Amino acid sequence: xxxxxxxxxxxxxxxxxxxxxxxxxxxxxxxxxxxxxxxxxxxxxxxxxxxxxxxxxxxxxxxxxxxxxxxxxxxxxxxxxxxxxxxxxxxxxxxxxxxxxxxxxxxxxxxxxxxxxxxxxxxxxxxxxxxxxxxxxxxxxxxxxxxxxxxxxxxxxxxxxxxxxxxxxxxxxxxxxxxxxxxxxxxxxxxxxxxxxxxxxxxxxxxxxxxxxxxxxxxxxxxxxxxxxxxxxxxxxxxxxxxxxxxxxxxxxxxxxxxxxxxxxxxxxxxxxxxxxxxxxxxxxxxxxxxxxxxxxxxxxxxxxxxxxxxxxxxxxxxxxxxxxxxxxxxxxxxxxxxxxxxxxxxxxxxxxxxxxxxxxxxxxxxxxxxxxxxxxxxxxxxxxxxxxxxxxxxxxxxxxxxxxxxxxxxxxxxxxxxxxxxxxxxxxxxxxxxxxxxxxxxxxxxxxxxxxxxxxxxxxxxxxxxxxxxxxxxxxxxxxxxxxxxxxxxxxxxxxxxxxxxxxxxxxxxxxxxxxxxxxxxxxxxxxxxxxxxxxxxxxxxxxxxxxxxxxxxxxxxxxxxxxxxxxxxxxxxxxxxxxxxxxxxxxxxxxxxxxxxxxxxxxxxxxxxxxxxxxxxxxxxxxxxxxxxxxxxxxxx
Amino acid sequence: xxxxxxxxxxxxxxxxxxxxxxxxxxxxxxxxxxxxxxxxxxxxxxxxxxxxxxxxxxxxxxxxxxxxxxxxxxxxxxxxxxxxxxxxxxxxxxxxxxxxxxxxxxxxxxxxxxxxxxxxxxxxxxxxxxxxxxxxxxxxxxxxxxxxxxxxxxxxxxxxxxxxxxxxxxxxxxxxxxxxxxxxxxxxxxxxxxxxxxxxxxxxxxxxxxxxxxxxxxxxxxxxxxxxxxxxxxxxxxxxxxxxxxxxxxxxxxxxxxxxxxxxxxxxxxxxxxxxxxxxxxxxxxxxxxxxxxx
Lengths: 639, 295
Known about the structure:
- The complex is a heterodimer of chains A (639) and B (295).
- Chain A has 639 residues and is of the alpha/beta class.
- Chain A has 23 helices and 24 strands.
- In chain A, the strands form four sheets. Chain A has an eight-stranded mixed sheet with strand order 6-5-4-1-3-2-16-7, with helices on both faces. A seven-stranded mixed sheet of chain A has the order 11-8-12-13-15-14-21, with helices on both faces. Chain A has a six-stranded mixed sheet with strand order 18-20-19-22-23-24, with helices on both faces.
- With 295 residues, chain B is of the alpha/beta class.
- Chain B has one domain: Thiamin diphosphate (ThDP)-binding fold, Pyr/PP domains (Rossmann fold, 3-Layer(aba) Sandwich), CATH 3.40.50.970.
- Helices cover 31% and strands 18% of the residues of chain B.
- The chains are: A alpha/beta (639), B alpha/beta (295).
């Protein structure tokens, strides 16, 4: 059975406070002991185009969205047009009653492709042209419509507060719909009020609280008992946070000892760097520390400045998405050749080129794996949820320094911008391991060779500025001292030294950190996946198991080096191997085939830029298990 | 290169306190021949590497070295943006007008209509003026020197290293192999002898020409910039070397961090103890968690 949940969606033009509304909603649910999973969708645009937040609320941890919307809070007409079909029977729509007569085709922000679709749909259903027609039709599906005179209500509030500037008042539409929503859910108002206060600065908190209250009371009076979905609070003692992937990565970096972060502004990575800069002073029990964030002129400078900082002995990272990583590639190769402990956080988004800059995707696995000319070792970690983003971000620095190689931490936009409720992250067990670093004392009276040939391939490192440790780095092939050498025997030694460090990674890092297994281990069908589809897959596997359909799930958390021996062992007994990925070609499936000789039997793929939902993954997997599905299924949910 | 080593020695810099960051080009390999930390980077990327090194550990004396193609062609974006930060490093551009390693193509500083030895046709691009570009980009020490005047070069390098802020030295350097126009003889004026048969050097020293590059306060900054830009236009028969522009009161990148992070210079990123004796992180994430708490 699907996890019992309430699904709330808020939508409006970019800049109308959709994010703020979602944040208030999430917090208010948190105060009442509920878990939330929220997905944020927005256009690459500053103001005006449609954006929305889809939140799922439950009494247990929520891992992904489902297709349902139980209550749609529409700030504008376009939101109704775009999402009305997602509202389930017995669900509701909060709409501005003054917009009901808007002609759907006149809404200027609706793009022509969507208008064509809409025209067809309206013709099919015999609808005429206004928003009201659409809503009337929805009522026949048992969708409740809650018309609210937004501007009249806000004017009343404005009068009470002595504000006559219309723009100041309309900015509160979001809070207004929050009040209506929670009244309909019959949720305790005090939690909502607290969430509003926690969101706004003191100066404007009061007026927003008043707006929320007015709307809440209005809805109680007007729509009482009209809506069957309730949000019930529960008492919990455990401490919880509501956190985005960007924030989780930032906190993980701080924990992991990152002290220099470089970046060039790019969606959806930049929020992480800004968050770090806003928290640059780091509190400790002794003297404070700090992380410096350098905004560079481009990603080429970002990656190479981070390498420079790492050579000087700071744990250093850079954060970017596809277009930025494309520019970083030459620098990545230099870091590989010079065994630099560099960490790159790579947020994948819809690609290629500018692609879908504010949407999600998982099409860069192969790129991360092969970026830069030549062969050199690299570690690639792929987090599957926001909590993993936190731990992996910290761990990446240990790996980078222990094995002296670049570590690419692959995330996607779906995680970066999703918000999720978790128990406060426990990091008490995390240890910082810096690898072999020689000090002035270690070096005294000795001849130092930066790239000394050793059995493991790891040469003890010296940070720039260490007395007795003068050394050289070069992008050319080099000898043990770091001086240029083109001699064949030296080249062979250096290639082998660098590459064999991967053997050590294979040997030393426990398999539990590379692969996660879920579900019935005796099943003969398995899902392999990586990254953000994790949550939807786990929920689907659990649902199918309850129905007696056996299936398990192997989440690949280390892409390079791929734990192929263990994967091969796990896959060889499977009759069905299904890869679920947000890309066109099934890149992980291809990689697994290359490394294990075992190919997926089924592909479940999505490349609309919207992350997979539990609903669609569940149906796709079920069809495969029932032998009703083609080898390749393409998922499409989400506007 | 001699000039550099002599400057280090005269300033009493210990080898382990100095990091030489170089790019790709004939100048790139220099880092391997000096006894100090050497980081031989990518084509055009000396300044980003240098910025990262200096920011992580401001105690290091960082000297970036590159060619004209490296700094003003492929790396021009970094050249400009480094000026915005006024990072406290020294940047020496070896300026010879050609791409030597790839056999003599025109570099960004080669003048239009010149046809050096290996060019199939005369150069059709206008040159970049490194002195002018540095001044308008915010460099706070802008000088030119000449590779065959070792004493002048050494003194200029010393002044640049001692300068607090971003210092550029445009080092004119004949390329004996590929630039057969701006040769040592051309700079020395062998083609323009006076009545006694003595060559009339094209180079002259600003410090001997009653030129004052120093900006004393913001009120004269603009006029000093204009003066330097005018000087930077001189070429062909009279080529100035020496300090064109120098401003000492502009806060460096490091000082700008210090205004936000008061202990930044004392305890910079590279020197912070990121692990306790037991190996755990000393950072208290409570504050982060507190902000995100929902109950």
